[in-house]
Design a protein that fits this description.
The protein has 599 residues and is of the alpha/beta class. It folds into three domains: 86 residues, Arginyl tRNA synthetase N-terminal domain (Gyrase A, domain 2); 236 residues, Rossmann fold (3-Layer(aba) Sandwich), CATH 3.40.50; 157 residues, Isoleucyl-tRNA Synthetase, Domain 1 (Orthogonal Bundle), CATH 1.10.730.10. α5 links the parallel β4 and β5. It is globular, with a radius of gyration of 29 Å.
């Protein structure tokens, strides 16, 4: 497949402008041209600051002089200067005809490209920890990863979707310690979701016990004995020592602990499977820390041959101080493994086993230095591959940062159920004739769009303060707003005879209103909006584009009649609406938001 025709179209127009300027002995490149902030200014603009230096005039003088000399031709119908900018106006009817026809011809292929043809990339995302709750903060990682996988595939890349699950480590030891000391078998539910969340509560309780100044004598938090001074220190050290011993025994293969670990690990994995099914996300390969821990320890003798990896006070460290990256402990002095000793062999495995050219790590921005350390270690080992950290900021509640350790957690399940109950009630009130099954199906799709878009609309570098009420608002910057807009488009088309008139010749000069010209321009920019995501690895760029498109359509809807317009105008507007519907659907699919024909 050729690179997007409408990326080519915009390039073609830019090249026309380049030629017009060349006639005035002005040399520029197509990329020097910008999109003005408002349609009234024109369709393409040239900042004249650099030209002013060469011509030894002010930027405004250069722009004014060129505007008076350029003779328009082709798709360029007007040239005007606005201060230091030279702006070009394009014949919207020509562009509209080309754009709309191409969109209706390509349908769901509109926006696809071969930018990444032949390049195999692994995108590692989600990476939840077993024995912890899957909270609303984890959702951001899943949504970013799922959207990037769709967009990379859309742009021709061969993608391997990977999930690296944290099924061992200190957090697991804490949970197992709590289970052994404070939980009876009768306390454990048989329900998959309840078991998974139960483990998360155990981890939080364990964390409190390992840090608190109170001693719980039994399983009941009410039965407490307050301690002071040395008693507190001794008790905490004893508890922490017990956890460390569990971690060591687990890594050494203690049979009883392994059985408990396997049983409880499966509870978490079962819950993750349920959640991924609900979110409609899939993985090609799963990696597990427990497996990479063994690979790392096997690799350790080879690692110690590198001068920057050494033993220090019984531990194994990577000394990266010469690289201004500090020291990374790989193995504790008791022989238990830390993250680095697992991530190093995993990185090698990714490239050698899966033959990838590039590896993306979608990981919380707070792990930025750690990943820099891992990448630098691999580089110093002469393993020089393209590894990219895709950082994102944390999600917080209005009450503060989400943390499994402190217990300030709202689980994905809790948020989803609360939202679903609200939407089901509202949907019932609007559609009393619908069956309960249909109401539930539609409501689930609305909630899915609300949660996913709520995680994608902000740039990866922005902290999210999550508010479910705001995310469900059909009039706000939300997924349901996009679904509502699509439903409105469908409603107009279903009431028209567009299917009968789609092949009738359309006079696109009838799309002459400013809002119509703006919509046409936006349609031509969709392929570029998709391609831009590859530069930033941030789906928020596409989310913003779709929201702007929806907003402008709704402005068009309130400003201009469609079904009651004169026949020729009506026909042109119906074709425009059909193209808008197609682009909106294409974009929603890339962001993995459910499409609704009716709300």
């Amino acid at each position: 497949m050729k690179l997007l025709k409408f990326m080519d179209l915009n390039l073609k127009i830019k090249n026309e402008i380049v030629k017009l300027l060349a006639k005035q002995k002005i040399k520029i490149k197509p990329e020097d041209l910008e999109i003005p902030p408002s349609a009234e200014m024109g369709d393409f603009g040239l900042p004249c600051f650099n030209l002013a230096k060469k011509l030894k005039k002010s930027p405004a003088e250069v722009a004014k002089d060129l505007a008076s000399k350029i003779k328009v031709s082709g798709t360029v119908v007007n040239v005007k200067n606005l201060g230091p900018y030279l702006n070009f106006v394009i014949d919207s009817s020509q562009i509209g005809e080309l754009a709309i026809k191409e969109i209706l011809k390509q349908k769901n292929k509109y926006g696809k490209s071969n930018i990444g043809k032949g390049v195999k990339v692994m995108i590692e995302y989600s990476q939840p920890n077993t024995h912890k709750e899957f909270h609303i903060g984890h959702l951001r990682n899943v949504c970013i990863g799922s959207a990037l996988i769709n967009i990379y595939k859309n742009c021709g890349y061969k993608v391997v979707a990977a999930n690296y699950i944290g099924d061992t480590g200190a957090h697991v030891a804490k949970t197992l310690w709590y289970l052994q000391n404070y939980i009876n078998e009768t306390d454990i539910s048989a329900d998959i979701k309840e078991r998974g969340e139960f483990l998360g509560r155990c981890y939080t309780a364990a964390s409190h016990l390992l840090e608190t100044v109170t001693k719980i004598k039994s399983g009941s938090p009410k039965d407490m004995e307050f301690m002071t001074g040395k008693q507190i220190i001794n008790e905490l050290e004893e508890r922490q020592g017990q956890v460390s011993e569990i971690l060591k025994k687990l890594e050494d293969g203690d049979k009883d602990l392994l059985n408990l670990w396997k049983q409880t690990r499966q509870w978490s994995l079962d819950l993750f499977t349920e959640i991924y099914k609900e979110l409609n996300v899939k993985f090609d390969v799963f990696f597990y820390e427990s497996e990479e821990e063994k690979a790392g320890k096997k690799m350790l003798p080879k690692l110690l041959k590198y001068p920057f990896i050494k033993k220090s006070e019984g531990a194994v460290i990577a000394d990266l101080q010469k690289e201004n990256l500090g020291v990374l402990v790989l193995v504790r002095k008791d022989g238990t493994a830390l993250y680095g000793i697992k991530d190093i062999p995993l990185a090698v495995k990714k490239f050698k086993k899966y033959k990838i050219k590039k590896s993306l790590y979608i990981v919380d921005s707070r792990q930025a230095q750690y990943l820099q350390q891992i990448f630098k270690i691999l580089e110093l080992m002469d393993f020089k591959k393209e590894m990219i950290h895709v950082p994102y900021e944390f999600v917080q509640l209005k009450s503060g940062i989400i943390s499994s350790r402190t217990g300030n957690v709202v689980t994905y399940e809790e948020v989803k159920e609360a939202a679903l109950n609200k939407v089901i009630g509202e949907t019932k009130s609007r559609h009393a004739d619908w069956t309960d099954d249909k109401i539930k199906e539609i409501s689930q799709k609305i909630v899915s769009a609300a949660l996913k878009f709520g995680m994608l609309k902000n740039g990866n570098d922005k902290v999210i303060t999550f508010d479910i009420e705001e995310s469900l608002d059909t009039q706000g910057f939300t997924g349901p707003y996009l679904q509502y807009t699509l439903a409105r488009l469908n409603s107009i088309l279903s009431k028209s005879e567009i299917n009968k008139s789609i092949k009738i010749k359309v006079d696109y000069k009838n799309l002459a209103a400013n809002i119509e010209k703006k919509l046409i321009k936006q349609l031509t920019q969709y392929p570029q909006a998709v391609a831009e995501v590859l530069k930033t690895n941030d789906p928020a760029n596409l989310a913003q584009y779709l929201f702007n498109l929806a907003q402008d359509f709704n402005a068009f809807y309130h400003e201009l009649p469609v079904l009651k317009a004169e026949p020729e105008i009506k026909n042109a507007r119906l074709h425009l609406i059909s193209a808008l519907k197609q682009v909106l659907e294409n974009g929603l699919e890339l962001l993995d938001l459910p499409i609704l024909q009716k709300m």
